[in-house]
Amino acid sequence: MIASPNAAPRPRRRRRGCAPLFAIALAAAALWLGWQIGTWPDVAALAERDPETTAFIARWRGGGWRGPGREVSWRPVPYSRISRHLKHAVVVAEDIEFFSHDGFSRRELRAALDQAIQEKAVPRGASTITQQLAKNLWLSSSRNPLRKLEEALLTRQLERRLSKRRILELYLNVVEWGPGIYGAEAASRHWFGRSARSLSTRQAAELAAALPRPRSWHPGSDSRAYRRMVRTVERRMAKARWVREQL
Q1: What is the mean pLDDT of residues 163-192?
Q2: Beta carbons of 168 and 79 less than 8 angstroms apart
Q3: Does the pTM of the predicted model rise above 0.85?
């Protein structure tokens, strides 16, 4: 039977499946937000107190139900007991705009994108020292959007609550310099048998050059790429003398 053109249209059935899904998503978001608020780190406390551990150190150490944890070499020291050469080398190697930006570097981001386009590859990391510190202290190496949002918020707090020198001091004391080796003092003693205070310019460049790949690049490595990076850091140190004046 053909329906009359004047017949009233049938009412559309409501999609009842969307409402429960939306409610579940909203509840999950609320739980995530509550957990974040309850576990958010006390960034301001770092102005006076050193961290007891870091996310990266805890992950390397492991242990717990999985068995005994792996050994960690970590000896935090004050800013004054870290070689000025190493501070200089790390800043020019990792974040030459460190003393002038607010935690984020547009210059480094553009350079990473340009390199990716030229090499037709995934963009390399363009994180500043402050961003790397936030990641090392509290986060993971994942690149998921939520983790990057946390990193951005923590980076902003670090820049607002701490001085640049304190941020650099913390970074130099927690960054990885080999499997289970964290911080400038432990790295200096492991690789050179001396304190972080007494590093030479060459030794500082060798440590700074190892930061992109700390588990495969290290002083004494026969990697050509690593040796090129050491020479690059030395050239940057020679050119960027103005950075040394701010350390």
Answers
A1: 98
A2: yes
A3: no
Average pLDDT over residues 54-69: 81
The answer to whether 52 touches 61, Cβ cutoff 8 Å, is no
As a whole number, the mean pLDDT across the chain is 84
Query: What percentage of the chain exceeds 90 in pLDDT?
Result: 67
Using a CB cutoff of 8 Å and minimum separation of 24, what contacts does 241-247 make? 243/88, 243/91, 243/92, 243/96, 243/99, 244/84, 244/88, 246/99, 246/164, 247/84, 247/87, 247/88, 247/91, 247/165, 247/168
Sign of the C-alpha dihedral, residues 183, 143, 126, 209?
Answer: positive
Quick one: CA dihedral 154, 159, 165, 168, positive or negative? positive
Q: How far apart are CA 39 and CA 43, in angstroms?
A: 12
